[in-house]
């Protein structure tokens, strides 16, 4: 995807980073660095990517929810929530947003992300819903999207992961998001489409547009394909 339309409005800029398959820890450290060093003039960013297999344990995570990680690495991180799994075929979008500038509260940002995911799934005629007691998006009783954020210096980082066309079996090695026996599902099992790459491209475009439309208006969107070399100057 080379271009995303942005709503007309104030002269706020948005950078979208299309990063492909990236190891988890360097991306996490880059998010931290950008958040720690950004000024109020720095553009908001959305990072779009996938990760090699990895379990990430949030700040509320408990060791007993890691049932049998085996050869998949476990990284203790600083987002909210508990343990989840990332792997190829899962769409990840990190939201590096100046929430203070946008006048968006944490709960509002979570609801915004959930609504964008629900509307994206509705485009495939899939009925999905959020749960007030467990952030994320569900199709019936099965979780299809995970959310986890951190707010630091008035800015958000981390974000969402949507199961599109992946190997779901590693979820059985954990209690997903701290819930024993929680079922998980993915988009490709719920639609007629069997072209995984085409499905990923379509859902990525729809979900990005849904998020952008719900954030503060952006009049200029720039697409890049690498992590910021100097995060404090990114955008």
TrEMBL record:
The site (Lowers pKa of active site Cys) lies at: 143
The record's keywords, sorted A to Z, are: Acyltransferase, Cytoplasm, Transferase
- Give the EC number(s) under which this enzyme is classified: 2.3.1.181
Q: Which domain of life is it from?
A: Bacteria
Q: Name one GO molecular function term.
A: lipoyl(octanoyl) transferase activity
The active site annotation covers 177
Family per similarity comment: Belongs to the LipB family.
Q: What is this protein called?
A: Octanoyltransferase
Q: Which organism is it from?
A: Pseudohongiella nitratireducens
**What lineage does the source organism belong to?**
Bacteria, Pseudomonadati, Pseudomonadota, Gammaproteobacteria, Pseudomonadales
Per the record, the gene is: lipB
């Amino acid at each position: 995807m080379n271009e995303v339309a942005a709503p007309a409005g104030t002269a706020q800029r948005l950078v979208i980073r299309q990063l492909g398959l990236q190891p988890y820890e360097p991306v996490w450290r880059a998010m931290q660095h950008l958040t720690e060093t950004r000024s109020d003039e720095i553009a908001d960013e959305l990072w779009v990517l996938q990760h090699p297999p990895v379990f990430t344990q949030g700040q509320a995570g408990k060791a007993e929810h890691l049932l049998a990680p085996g050869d998949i690495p476990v990284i203790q991180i600083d987002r909210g929530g508990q343990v989840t799994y990332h792997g190829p075929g899962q769409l990840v979008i990190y939201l590096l947003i100046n929430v203070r500038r946008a006048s968006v509260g944490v709960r509002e940002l979570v609801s915004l992300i959930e609504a964008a995911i629900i509307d994206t799934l509705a485009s495939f005629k899939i009925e999905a819903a959020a749960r007030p007691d467990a952030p994320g998006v569900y199709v019936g009783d099965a979780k299809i999207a995970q959310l986890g954020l951190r707010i630091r210096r008035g800015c958000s980082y981390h974000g969402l992961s949507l199961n599109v066309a992946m190997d779901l079996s590693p979820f059985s090695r954990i209690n997903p998001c701290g819930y024993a026996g929680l079922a998980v599902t993915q988009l490709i099992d719920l639609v007629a489409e069997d072209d995984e790459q085409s499905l990923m491209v379509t859902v990525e475009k729809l979900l990005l547009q849904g998020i952008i439309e719900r954030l503060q208006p952006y009049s200029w969107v720039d697409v890049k394909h690498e992590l910021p070399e100097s995060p404090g100057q990114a955008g």
